[in-house]
Specification:
449 residues; Cytochrome p450; three-stranded antiparallel beta sheet; 15 strands; 50% helix; membrane
Length: 449
């Protein structure tokens, strides 16, 4: 019986094993005479230390994985994550070099299993002119003028509708409500879909399944998060494909009621194929929804009804820093890279642990304390090279200003209409994306006048 179960398990895991073996970490052969990587541990065959890396931990911390390995090997060490030999850095200077040395030393390096979900034309996998082209599309679409002229009214309308519904509820799940708000805004911005209708709600359910499997173990059999994520990707792309077809027909007919969204913008300003368009929009859907929903939820959690700290952009920065929504970024060394006594060999994946920078007591005083006043500058928001929530260099998040706009509008309506308190204790957990185990339920108190 035991032998039979082993055979069944190996059969189910075969696609996963093949996926790991095909990843760069196992296909890369060391050059003769190549320098050695920093010290570390490769863990188990195939899966390496991925399970330990993905282990849940409180969001305002770097987690046991980093704590234990930094203590043993130092701020730069080698591991095996997602089937790739990976140099992990918790060093602020090295992390800054990783972000700023695009192409000269580092290229795209996200796990191949993740890129299979995002698509081969996703912006995070692109380099050089391809990346510049995709990024310029989003940057121009989200220009300052368009944010004020096109997006502000829509963001205001969605936030007013979401928050207006709270008056009748008394108790709400912040996780549910902020996701609904952020998805309503981004679905309208990308595909012209109206918030709070059946089609949009269905797409959001697919998106939730899609995002849950992004950083899961790539187990290629039914029922796993990774398998479900691939299925959800296909369903989302079917919606984008249908919308694209309808939009092309309307534009060909000379219709003037074409939506001013990213889909139309892409059709008018590029020669992208259906696949390229789908991957671009899917990636923007992920980036434009996830950060917004989580930073609002974190701010509500940290403030817990206290209006004293409500200078919005200070709260925004501090929630991003302490919540560690952007836990790390990954690159690939395109050549041997020397940093102090360390050499990152060509072909190795490189992980810049941004959370380690944000939680470094030498950079941020009392880093585990929520302190928006640390961002108070002489004439506005204090800037810091150690704040890396939106990445840096040529891969600085192109949607950062839209996220700030959504946060500012939502919080304006929130604090002018309500005070709130937690219904029960809840805490942000990184698993590996930030979430609230209990859904962050709050009791609402409507303000008079």
């Amino acid at each position: 019986m035991l032998g039979f179960l082993v055979i069944v398990l190996l059969t189910l895991l075969l696609p996963t094993i093949l996926l790991f073996l095909s990843s760069s970490g196992w296909s890369h052969s060391r050059r003769r005479g190549a320098p050695s990587a920093p010290p570390g541990n490769t863990g188990w065959p195939l899966i390496g230390e991925t399970v330990a890396f993905l282990k849940s931990h409180p969001s305002p911390s770097i987690g046991d994985f980093l704590i234990q390995r930094v203590s043993r090997f130092g701020n730069v060490f080698t591991s095996n994550l997602f089937g790739q030999r990976t140099v992990v850095s918790t060093d602020v200077q090295l992390n800054r070099s990783i972000l700023l040395n695009e192409l000269r030393a580092f290229g795209p390096g996200w796990p191949r299993s993740m890129l299979r979900v995002l698509g081969r034309y996703t912006i995070v996998a692109q380099a050089g002119d391809d990346h510049k082209c995709s990024r310029s599309i989003i940057v121009n679409f989200l220009s300052s003028a368009r944010l004020q002229a096109v997006f502000l009214q829509g963001v205001d309308r969605v936030s007013t509708a979401i928050l207006g519904s709270w008056k009748e509820k008394g108790v709400v799940s912040v996780r549910v409500e902020t996701k609904k708000f952020a998805f309503g805004v981004i679905a309208k911005a990308i595909l012209g879909m109206e918030p709070n209708n059946t089609e949009t709600d269905k797409l959001q359910r697919e998106f939730d399944i899609f995002s849950q499997g992004l950083m899961s173990l790539p187990l290629m059999f039914p029922g796993t998060a990774y398998w479900n994520s691939l299925k959800a990707r296909s369903n989302i792309l079917n919606v984008i494909r249908q919308k694209r077809k309808e939009r092309i027909n309307r534009m060909r007919d000379g219709r003037t009621d074409v939506e001013d969204d990213l889909l139309t913008w892409t059709l008018e300003n590029t020669n992208f194929t259906e696949e390229q368009t789908g991957d671009l929009l899917l990636g923007f859907l992920l980036g434009g929804h996830d950060t917004t929903a989580k930073v609002i939820a974190l701010a509500i959690y940290y403030l817990d009804g206290c209006p004293k700290a409500l200078e919005q952009m200070r709260v925004f920065n501090e929630s991003l820093r302490l919540g560690n929504i952007a836990k790390y970024v990954q690159r690939m060394a395109v050549k041997d890279f020397q940093y102090k006594e360390h050499v990152i060999p060509q072909g190795f994946s490189v992980m810049a642990a941004l959370s380690a920078v944000h939680m470094d007591p030498s950079l941020f005083e009392d880093p585990k304390q929520f302190n928006p006043w640390r961002w108070k500058g002489p004439s506005g928001i204090k800037k810091s090279n150690n704040f890396m929530a939106f990445g840096g260099g040529s891969r600085l998040c192109p949607g950062a200003e839209l996220v700030k706009l959504e946060f500012a509008v939502f919080f304006h309506h929130l604090i002018t209409n309500y005070r709130w308190e937690l219904v029960e204790p809840d805490h942000p957990i990184n698993r590996p994306f930030v979430d609230f185990a209990g859904g962050l339920h709050i009791k609402i108190h409507t303000l008079k006048n």
